[in-house]
Design brief:
This protein is of the alpha+beta class. It has 16 helices and 19 strands. Bound molecules: flavin-adenine dinucleotide.
Length: about 475
């Protein structure tokens, strides 16, 4: 049944251009899901615009007529943030996929939202540069989606999350105004930082149509340490000690035995039999001093691990890196039956809190008698507790309860309920709990007021980030 009048639909189609609209159910069905377990509604129309003017015209009509709009790019969201919770239309920015400008001396690249992150880095590699944010989904995720979720990824331990890498943006607000924020320069002191507000806004304020991204020269040389552990808190201590010694690794990942097992065939290394956890650290340096730096880290880790492998061969390193990036998909092989799904958790604590946090999370999972595996970007304190459960009402309820208890552990240890995946519709309750616990629910009220300024008719990505009662 159509929710909006044929007159309104016609106006939207005319504004977008008929060739940029998907009408049939068959073409629209893929948009009912993102990479999370949370399904959404079938969009009334899917608009795949070519430019920001079309987006502005569509959003003006939608605002005037109360048509809800969900935005999407790569569709790899893990929190249900890129599917429809309310009837409406979907804007997919994947046709806007151009790299517009590159300036090496000023260290920036200008991109449209549909540029995939791996494609961007393939392009930059030709110039010996790279864009540091590196979510494991980088093959499919995009500039638009990663900015809108403030994505982190493997290199965040050194370079921070996406928010550190965005200088400016072109953005269409929910009511259809095209705005330009930020600059091409590293510094600016000129009023409110609107660019920062857009980062992590999950499509609730409008549509990002262009971004100015900072870039870096590629590291000269890198090497990798793999270390094996029996005990989870030893992993936390090892990485804390490495950082205490003033070493900031390029990446610092950990994984538990089930995760190792799911990618064991791709790792092609000898893993000691006692192993329950593996730590993977990349160190970068000049060609001359790389081994010196690796040895320094090795000596520290040796206090906690008897078995350490050092790899400097680029091909082997690349193979292991892509196996790690594929860990989530590989975990699906560990399901006990076809009905099971794997729900990826995403919390973060300061690195110093890791040993205690990891211990408490392990205990909580045992108490709940639910199958879960752990991996994550341990160098920046980001832990993914991945829960295996049947996709039934009762199964999801059990996961929600466990997620809430794990979130409370993170909050207690000065952390956050979402490190890099965003809130979507999966974590609204956890976000509310975080601010309730901090005695700062007014922060959430302020966020809603800000949304209202960008999106006065409340049409953009409704139901995401905040609790919202279904009409
Ligand atoms: C296998 C796998 C591994 C992952 N690993 C990581 C990881 O290591 N680190 C990490 O941070 N994340 C990770 N993710 C999560 C996800 O990939 C990231 O959040 C990603 O950055 C989303 O990009 P996307 O283009 O797919 O966005 P989408 O899924 O299309 O959208 C994500 C959000 O951004 C909004 N959005 C999209 N485009 C726009 C736009 N143009 N304007 C305004 N809003 C927009 C959407 O409305 C939605 O709220 C992983 C996901 C998978 C499936």
């Amino acid at each position: 049944m159509e929710t909006y009048s044929s007159d309104v639909i016609k106006k939207i189609v005319d504004a977008a251009g008929k060739n940029n609209v998907l009408f049939s159910k068959e073409e629209k069905i893929p948009y009912e899901n993102d990479a999370s377990y949370i399904g959404g509604l079938l969009p009334e129309l899917v608009i795949i615009p070519e430019n920001s003017f079309q987006i502005a015209s569509v959003l003006k009509i939608c605002s005037q007529n109360g048509v809800n709009v969900t935005v999407r790019s790569g569709g790899t969201a893990l929190t249900g943030s890129s599917v429809l919770q309310y009837p409406g239309i979907l804007i997919n920015t994947m046709k806007m996929d151009k790299i517009i400008d590159l300036n090496l001396s000023s260290r920036y690249v200008v991109c449209q939202p549909g540029v995939r992150l791996d494609k961007l880095n393939e392009y930059l590699k030709k110039y010996n540069f790279f864009y540091p944010p590196d979510p494991a989904s980088s093959r499919a995720s995009t500039v638009g989606g990663s900015i809108s979720t403030n994505a982190g990824g493997l290199r965040a331990v050194r370079y921070g999350a996406t928010k550190e890498w965005i200088l400016g943006a072109e953005f269409v607000t929910g009511n259809g105004n095209i705005i330009s924020t930020g600059e091409y320069t590293l510094k600016r002191s000129a009023g409110y930082d609107i660019t920062a507000l857009l980062i992590g806004s999950e499509g609730t304020l409008g549509v990002l149509t262009e971004a100015i991204l900072k870039i870096e020269p590629l590291p000269e040389e890198t090497g990798r340490i793999l270390a094996f552990f029996r005990d989870i808190s030893e992993v936390g201590r090892a990485i804390s000690d490495v950082k205490n010694a003033g070493i900031t690794p390029l990446i610092a990942e950990f994984m538990d035995l089930p995760t190792i097992d799911s990618i064991r065939d791709k790792l092609d290394i000898n893993i000691p039999e006692y192993t329950q956890f593996m730590l993977m650290i990349d160190i970068d340096s000049t060609k001359k001093s790389l081994m010196e730096k690796i040895t320094q880290a090795q000596v520290i880790i040796k206090k906690y691990s008897n078995d350490i492998i050092v790899i400097t061969d680029r091909v082997k390193m690349e193979k292991i890196y892509s196996a790690r990036k594929g860990a989530y998909s590989s975990l699906l092989k560990q399901r006990e039956n076809d009905k099971q799904i794997v729900i990826i958790g995403d919390l973060i604590v300061p690195a110093s809190e890791l040993p205690e946090t990891l211990k408490e999370i392990g205990k909580k999972i045992d108490e709940h008698k639910i199958k879960a595996t752990l991996f994550g970007h341990i160098g920046d304190g980001n832990i993914h507790a991945n829960i295996f459960v049947e996709n039934t009402e009762n199964g999801i309820k059990r996961v929600d309860e466990l997620q809430m208890e794990i979130a409370k552990i993170a909050i207690k240890h000065k952390g956050c309920v979402s490190a890099e995946h965003g809130i979507g519709t999966e974590k609204n309750a956890l976000l509310y709990e975080e601010y309730r616990e901090k005695n700062s629910l007014y922060t959430l009220e302020l966020m809603k007021k800000i949304k209202n300024v960008f999106d006065p008719y409340n049409i953009m990505n409704r139901g995401k980030i905040f609790y919202e009662k279904q009409d």
